[in-house]
Write a structure and sequence with these properties.
- The protein is α/β, with parallel strands linked by helices.
- The chain contains 14 helices and 22 strands.
- The chain has a seven-stranded parallel sheet with strand order 18-19-17-16-20-21-22, sandwiched between helices. It has a four-stranded parallel sheet with strand order 12-11-13-14, sandwiched between helices.
Amino acid sequence: MQVHAADTVAVALRPLRAGEQVALAGASHVLAQDIPQGHKFSLKAHRAGDRVVKYGLPIGRASAAIAPGEHVHSHNLVTALVGEEQYVPGRASLSTGAATFDEEPVWQGYRRADGRAATRNEIWILPTVGCVALTAEQIARSAEQRHAALISAGKIDGIIAYPHPHGCSQLGDDLAGTRALLAGLAAHPNAAGVLLLGLGCESNQLAALIDAIPLSARAKVRSLSSQAAGDELAEAGAIIDAMVAEAAQAQREPLPLGALVVGLKCGGSDGFSGLTANPLLGRFSETLAAAGGTPILTEIPEIFGAEQALLDRAVDAQVFGAAATLVNRFKRYYLDQGLPVSENPSPGNIAGGITTLEEKSAGAVQKAGTAPLTSVIAYGAQADRPGLALLEAPGNDAVSSTALTAAGATLVLFTTGRGTPLGFPAPTVKIASNRALATSKQHWIDFDASAALEGTVETVDRAFMNRLIAIASGERTAAERAGQRAIAIWKKGVTL
């Protein structure tokens, strides 16, 4: 496949053999080497130093001469990224490829007191510090056993603890980041009730954490200091029981598509991610934004090299400036550690056919489609307006997906070409970029985006929308069925 008319490389949709003749864009190409599935081969002669183009964007420079039909990968393609840039406002076309439907999709969700919509009705236990993380899990297990009948009847969707190792021996911005992240999770609409479980002597004190939670969400939050309690297990159990009784009164009701806040994530990407799964999310993001909903894009280091196309869609100068500053701040974060900004892709990405960070980024930003960029969100803060939001967080799967949840995402759409079982507090929808993964890991995967290579885009979009509506309305994801629910906090400072 030649993705864009300006591309100087094409992608092998199946393993290709040396000597095979491939016809693309009115020309015939004889392959000089075997080309693994998902990898690239050259459509033209490149001299050393020439730009190599994929998705219509430069993905690096040839490090040696490349003849037509040759395999293009890490042996002859290198990054051109160097560091911070001076970005210039542009004007991108916002013509949309959004999917259209005869009727606006409607899902069944919970409307909370603050007006936000929830896809789940759960009780969450958030430890302030790693010292009581296992205690939080113990409390959750006991409570789920006591309330098994209500969970089975669908009155509540679960009682879940989210352990982590942080909250003490932290200073300054590092501690503030932990507190902001936990405060964002405590405010999440999917949590009908939240128990903040503290130890008592930790840096992340309960009072300061409660102060960081938005006022509109504090009514559902309870706290307990384990050192101050008599029997912390019994006292926590009583608090949870009261929360369950109240949460069980909630009822699902019809809600519009625009009530959804959706996190966009890719992990374990391969050469197909930018061809199938990420464009699928892009079309959905455009549809969601047009309906008044909020798609959230993050993984800032994984837009390096493709950021200008995103910045060009900023709705005003303030949003453009905030987004440009965020990208350069991340680059400076790398450079201050003595690391290149291009220290990506991962070994799994490379094995799947992705060579440079520019190539990975050009595929990754497709998750947002052409939706206008309306806001930039700090780590731990919540999305507060419709349209595409850009969230401060790194590329790490667990850290960025947790940040998306704390920002208010009630679904996390996670594309992958290599596969992963891990899920996060918001229902995590795993979308396979290739048929082999979808077939071999059916217990991990919720949707097979590779169908876009075989059928019509409209058919795939409709099937994907139907799947998301079912999950938003209560159908469990593969990760939820497996009990794969976790959080990870971005630790970026010194430890005492």
